[in-house]
Each structure stands twice: as C-alpha cells, then as structure tokens.
Amino acid sequence: MIDAYILIKPIVTEKSLALAKERNVYTFAVVNSATKPQIAQAVAHLYEVKVIRVRTIMNQAQMRRTGKKRIQHNSSKTKKALVSLKAGQTIELFDLGN
C-alpha cells in the first residue's frame, strides 16, 4: 500500500494534544484495513521519526437521526491509531505552541 493512502488525517483534539505533550503519543485516523506494521511504516516515512509502538482502536458504526423527517442511518466504522515515538522525537503538526 502507498503510505499516503494508509493515513487519512491526524486527529487534533484536546485529548490527543495532551497525549502528544505528556506521553509522546500521536493520534491518526487510518484506513480500516491498515495493519500496525503498515501504520508504523507510513508514519516513519512521512514524518521522518522512529516509531516505537502502534495501538489501534476500531470505532463501531452508530445509529444517527438526521433531516426534517429524522431518518435513521448508520455512521461508518472508523479506525484510529495511537503511535508512540522514540524519546526526544516529535511531530510538529501536533505542537500548537502550548
């Protein structure tokens, strides 16, 4: 797989920024079929860092009600990856000057 295809986007929230600052763990939305070695390789290649550990989380689909008629539909399943980096290395995208 191509590296750019595996990583969908970085997840930048208060919780993910706190993890990045305190524990050097960075959060990304990834393709559902991506494996841990593929995620580690993609992050290492795109951000030029040394990946120590990758943890993944599958968020299940949820029922949502939208529109004037409040029609129900399922949101899609998503996958998140928590990537731990070698001590001293950072991804500048998560450094918002705090």
Structure description:
The structure is a single chain. The strands form two sheets. A four-stranded antiparallel beta sheet has the order 1-2-6-3. The chain contains three helices and six strands; from the N terminus they run H-E-H-E-H-E-E-E-E. The chain has 98 residues and is α+β, with helices and mostly antiparallel strands. The protein has a single domain (3-88), classed as RRM (RNA recognition motif) domain (Alpha-Beta Plaits, 2-Layer Sandwich), CATH 3.30.70. The radius of gyration is 16 Å and the shape is elongated. Strand 4 (63-66) and strand 5 (71-74) form a beta hairpin.
Distance between the termini: 35 Å
**Order of H and E elements:** HEHEHEEEE
Report the uncertain regions: none
Strand arrangement, major sheet: 1-2-6-3
Query: Within the CATH hierarchy, at the fold level, what is the topology?
Result: Alpha-Beta Plaits
Structural class: alpha+beta
Number of strands: 6
Average pLDDT figure = 91
Query: Could you describe the largest sheet, including whether it forms a barrel?
Result: 4 strands, antiparallel
* Beta-strand residue fraction: 35-45%
CATH homologous superfamily identity: RRM (RNA recognition motif) domain
**Count of individual domains:** 1
User: Radius of gyration in whole Å, from Cα?
Assistant: 16 Å
Principal-axes geometry comes out as elongated
CATH classification class? Alpha Beta
* Tally of helical segments: 3
Give me the CATH architecture, please: 2-Layer Sandwich
In helices, the fraction of residues equals 25-40%
